[in-house]
C-alpha cells in the first residue's frame, strides 16, 4: 500500500464540468483505491477525458469536489501535480527525436543528471520492448511503439498516480497486449492507475474496480465480476455451414442456454446472450454443452465462440439502450433535471 493512510488515490463527489450548455462531467462520484488499476468505462463523449483533465488539474471544475491523495485539485493543485502523471501531457514526445533522446530529455527536465537519465531511459526502453528502436526517430514508430514510449515517458519519475486515457484505442491485439503488460508492471511498482477505456474486456483484465460512465455520471460501479453479473457472462456466437440448419440450431441453443437466440442478418449466424450469473466458468461450461449438443444433432458448425459482453451489451443491460455518442448535441433540459 502507499504511504498515505486513507487508501483512496482519488475521491470525487458531485464533480461537474460544463462546456457552454454541455455538461461533460455531470455529478461524478468516484472513489479510487490507491495501489490499484481503476477502470473508467464509457462510450465516446461520456466525459472520461474531461474528468481526467480535471483530476490532473488541467481543467478547473465548475462544481463538486475532487481530491487526489487527499489534496483538493483546485486549492492544492501543486501538491496534486507533484504526484500525478498523464500520458500525452508530460509525455509529449518529439517526433523528430529518437526514443532514447526523448526519454533522456524528459529525464533531464525532471531533474535527473545525464548518466542517471540515460540509465533510466535504457531501463524503460528495455522493459517496454523498445531497445531495438531506441535510436530510431519516433516518427518512424508504429502506433503501438509510440503508445509504449508515451507510457515510458510518463513513468520516468514513478508517479503515485498515472492517468492512462484510452491507451489502447486503435492498437492491434499484439500491441494492446504489450500495453496491458506495461500497465501491470507499473501497478506492481505501487503506482495507482486510472485507466479510461471503451472496452469492457480491457477493464476486466486490468482493473480491480470499474466505474461505467455515461453522460458525465457513474451509472454502475463495482468489480468486473459484479459488473458482468449484472450484464450477463457473455455472448455465444455461432456460424453454421448450412443456412438450412439455422432453425434447428436456434432450437438447440435456446434449449441448452435457456436464453433468447438472435438470428443475425448473415443467414448462417446466430448469437445468444448467456446469463451465467457472471461466472465465466459456468458460461463456458454451458457454451461447451451447447456446442456438443449441436454436434449431436448433426448440425455443422463452422465457427463457435464465447465472447465477453461488449460495451454495447453493458449499456443495453444497464440503461436499456446502446451507448449514444453525444458530441456537442444539446441535451434536452429535462434529461438533466430528471437526473439531478
Ligand atoms: N474543450 C471542450 N470544449 C467544448 N466541449 C468539450 C470540450 N472537451 C470535451 N467537450 C465535450 O464534452 C463531452 C465529453 O467529452 P470527453 O472528451 O470528456 O469524452 P470522452 O468520454 O473522453 O470521449 P472519447 O471516448 O471519445 O474520448 C463531449 O460532449 C465533448 O464534445
Ligand atoms: Mg476521451
TrEMBL record:
Domain of life: Bacteria
Topology relative to the membrane: Peripheral membrane protein
InterPro entries for the chain: AAA+_ATPase (IPR003593), ABC_transporter-like_ATP-bd (IPR003439), ABC_transporter-like_CS (IPR017871), ABC_transporter_ATP-binding (IPR050763), DrrA (IPR005894), P-loop_NTPase (IPR027417)
Major place of residence: membrane
Chain ranges of the ABC transporter domain: 10-240
Disordered: annotated segments: 321-340
Gene Ontology molecular-function annotations: ATP binding; ATP hydrolysis activity
Pfam families: ABC_tran
UniProt keyword terms in alphabetical order: Antibiotic resistance, ATP-binding, Cell membrane, Membrane, Nucleotide-binding, Translocase, Transport
Database matches in Gene3D superfamilies: P-loop containing nucleotide triphosphate hydrolases (3.40.50.300)
GO cellular component: plasma membrane
GO term, biological process aspect, one: daunorubicin transport
NCBIfam families noted in UniProt: drrA (TIGR01188)
Protein family according to the UniProt entry: Belongs to the ABC transporter superfamily. Drug exporter-1 (DrugE1) (TC 3.A.1.105) family.
Protein name: Daunorubicin resistance protein DrrA family ABC transporter ATP-binding protein
Amino acid at each position: 500500500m502507499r504511504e498515505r493512510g486513507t487508501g483512496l488515490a482519488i475521491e470525487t463527489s458531485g464533480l461537474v464540468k460544463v462546456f457552454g450548455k454541455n455538461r461533460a462531467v455531470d455529478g461524478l462520484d468516484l472513489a479510487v483505491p490507491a495501489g490499484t488499476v481503476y477502470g473508467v468505462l464509457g462510450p465516446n463523449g461520456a466525459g472520461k477525458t474531461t474528468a481526467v483533465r480535471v483530476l490532473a488539474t488541467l481543467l478547473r471544475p465548475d462544481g463538486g469536489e475532487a481530491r487526489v491523495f487527499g489534496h483538493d485539485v483546485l486549492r492544492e493543485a501543486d501538491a496534486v501535480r507533484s504526484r500525478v502523471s498523464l500520458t500525452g501531457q508530460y509525455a509529449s514526445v518529439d517526433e523528430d527525436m529518437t526514443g532514447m533522446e526523448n526519454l533522456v530529455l524528459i529525464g533531464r527536465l525532471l531533474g535527473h543528471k545525464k548518466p542517471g537519465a540515460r540509465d533510466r531511459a535504457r531501463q524503460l526502453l528495455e522493459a517496454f520492448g523498445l531497445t531495438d528502436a531506441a535510436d530510431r526517430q519516433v516518427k518512424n514508430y508504429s502506433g503501438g511503439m509510440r503508445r509504449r514510449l508515451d507510457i515510458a515517458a510518463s513513468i520516468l519519475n514513478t508517479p503515485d498516480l498515472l492517468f492512462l486515457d484510452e491507451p489502447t484505442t486503435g492498437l492491434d491485439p499484439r500491441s494492446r497486449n504489450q500495453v496491458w503488460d506495461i500497465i501491470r508492471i507499473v501497478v506492481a511498482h505501487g503506482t495507482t492507475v486510472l485507466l479510461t477505456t471503451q472496452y469492457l474486456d480491457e477493464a476486466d483484465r486490468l482493473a480491480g474496480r470499474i466505474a461505467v460512465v455515461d453522460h458525465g455520471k457513474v451509472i454502475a460501479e463495482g468489480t468486473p465480476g459484479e459488473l458482468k453479473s449484472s450484464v450477463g457472462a457473455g455472448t455465444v456466437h455461432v456460424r453454421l455451414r448450412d443456412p438450412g440448419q439455422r432453425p434447428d440450431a436456434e432450437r438447440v441453443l435456446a434449449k441448452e442456454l435457456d436464453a433468447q437466440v438472435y438470428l443475425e442478418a448473415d443467414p448462417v449466424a446466430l448469437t445468444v446472450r448467456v446469463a451465467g450469473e457472471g461466472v465465466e466458468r459456468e458460461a463456458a461450461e454451458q457454451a461447451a454443452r451447447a456446442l456438443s449438443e449441436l454436434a449431436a444433432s448433426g448440425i455443422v458448425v463452422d465457427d463457435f465462440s464465447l465472447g465477453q459482453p461488449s460495451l454495447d451489451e453493458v449499456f443495453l443491460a444497464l440503461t436499456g439502450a446502446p451507448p449514444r455518442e453525444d458530441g456537442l448535441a444539446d441535451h434536452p433540459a429535462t434529461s438533466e433535471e430528471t437526473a439531478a
